[in-house]
Write a structure and sequence with these properties.
The complex is a heterodimer. Chain A is α/β, with parallel strands linked by helices. Chain A contains four helices and seven strands; from the N terminus they run H-H-E-E-H-E-H-E-E-E-E. Chain A folds into two domains: 74 residues, GMP Synthetase, Chain A, domain 3, CATH 3.30.300.130; 54 residues, no CATH class. In chain A, the strands form two sheets. Chain A has a four-stranded mixed sheet with strand order 4-7-6-5. Chain A has a three-stranded mixed sheet with strand order 1-2-3. Chain A starts with a helix and ends with a strand. The chains are: A alpha/beta, B mainly alpha. Bound molecules: zinc ion.
Chain lengths: 157, 249
């Protein structure tokens, strides 16, 4: 089996905290390698303390086990560090549909300075910060000043 | 003891003990958003501790895992700064401690990104982004509460006086720091201190707080000599692994 086919199998592994998002869309899945009957999958963690990473690792093993691979090795690679720039275009759309404003396109310079944030419900750019930390460490809590809906914003990292 | 190991272990201990302290606020913070923010920041520190202690275990090369190092060492074998282990106090104390350490971590991890130890550099590249958010939040609170009501100002000033004597330890130099900066594993503590002081003095002035006079520096954590508060913290943190060795999720 080729790397592409393994990666396709892994499309069924999702982020336990944002279940609509696959680990591919999240940008966590870096590569896969097949040797005889074993597979090595490389992932890069989103955040230092992200509790989702352990679940993701277990789900990768389970997914590949159920597809006939008995020996699965999941390796964590720290460098280069994951960044929100690795979210795929599809991933950004899924976030928005789930009511989470995707991270602004920030590049690496002044990544933490908030750029324009749109309300995922009504696209209004008139929003206010409620809290720098939302439901998880990677999000901040905002409120739309037009439709008044509070929403999570996926912070730039 | 292997100095490189010791250097990374100290950093791991700081992250672990501070994260453990912060997590005590979970469910008890003044309001919901703050509760969530504090717990999330605590998680960043614990996550960092996991990576640092894993790396320390590798450097030591005696087969100790992150869990062994976190849960199976006694008080005298922990080398965190004393400031990390102090009880949470009131929210003013918690935020003041947080800000002083966030400012320290900001400059530390900025520099560690260039460490000659590539694993440490990778951990730092992750940590610096988290800390950028941490220091902005805690710094905002220091200004808001310092330059706030009479009571909030008084409490922040009291907190500053109480914790100030513990900050000297952050920049103390011994043979381990010396080794780390010579090998370019870690930054020069003196340069770090200058950057920290510049930021902190500036922030405290904006917060209308007065910088305490020279105080008697309190230290010991890096020699494994701790405050009275450390025993209780470890008892709570290590209880499960001590009573059910090897227990797993
Ligand atoms: Zn809206």
């Amino acid at each position: 089996m080729s790397e592409t086919e393994i990666l396709r199998l892994l499309e069924c592994v999702h982020d336990p905290e944002i279940p609509a998002l696959s680990i591919e869309d999240l940008g966590v899945l870096r590569s896969a390698r097949v040797t005889d009957n074993a597979v090595e999958v490389v992932i890069t963690p989103t955040y230092s303390g992200c509790p989702a990473m352990d679940v993701i690792e277990a789900d990768i093993v389970e997914c590949l086990n159920s597809n006939g691979f008995r020996d699965v090795l999941v390796t964590t690679r720290l460098a280069p560090a994951w960044t929100t720039e690795w979210l795929t275009e599809k991933g950004r759309e899924i976030l928005k549909k789930s009511g989470i404003a995707p991270p602004s396109r920030c590049g690496n310079a002044d990544f933490s300075v908030n750029k324009i944030i749109e309300c995922p419900m009504c696209d209004s750019k008139s929003v206010e910060l409620l809290s720098q930390f939302g439901t998880t460490a990677c999000k901040a809590l905002y409120r739309c000043q037009k439709c008044l809906e509070p929403f999570d914003y996926f912070k730039c990292h | 003891m292997n100095k490189h190991f010791q250097y990374v272990l100290r950093m791991g201990d700081n992250a672990l003990i501070l994260g453990q302290r912060m997590s005590e606020w979970c469910g008890h913070s003044p309001f919901l958003e703050e509760d969530i923010a504090m717990a999330n920041c605590a998680l960043d520190h614990v996550g960092r501790a996991r990576m640092l202690l894993t790396h320390a275990g590798t450097l030591e090369d005696k087969g100790r895992t992150e869990d062994d190092l976190a849960f199976l060492r006694d008080e005298r074998e922990f080398f965190n700064f004393l400031i990390c282990e102090l009880p949470i106090g009131d929210y003013a104390f918690t935020l003041m401690r947080q800000y002083l350490l966030d400012a320290y971590h900001f400059h530390l991890y900025s520099r560690l990104q260039k460490s000659s130890d590539s694993v440490l550099a990778a951990i730092a590249a992750k940590a610096i982004k988290e800390t950028t958010y941490h220091v902005r939040r805690s710094g905002d609170w220091v200004v808001k509460l310092g330059d706030g009501s009479d009571e909030s100002h008084r409490r922040m000033q009291d907190a500053l006086e109480e914790v100030w004597g513990y900050t000297g330890e952050l920049f103390a130099v011994d043979e381990v720091d010396d080794y780390a900066s010579r090998k370019e594993i870690g930054p020069d503590p003196e340069a770090l201190r200058l950057d920290w002081e510049r930021d902190v003095f500036d922030k405290l002035r904006t917060a209308t707080l007065s910088i305490p006079d020279e105080v008697w520096p309190i230290s010991g954590g890096r020699k494994g000599v701790h405050t009275e508060a450390m025993g209780g913290l470890l008892a709570e943190m290590q209880f499960l692994q001590r009573s059910h060795p090897g227990l797993n999720w």
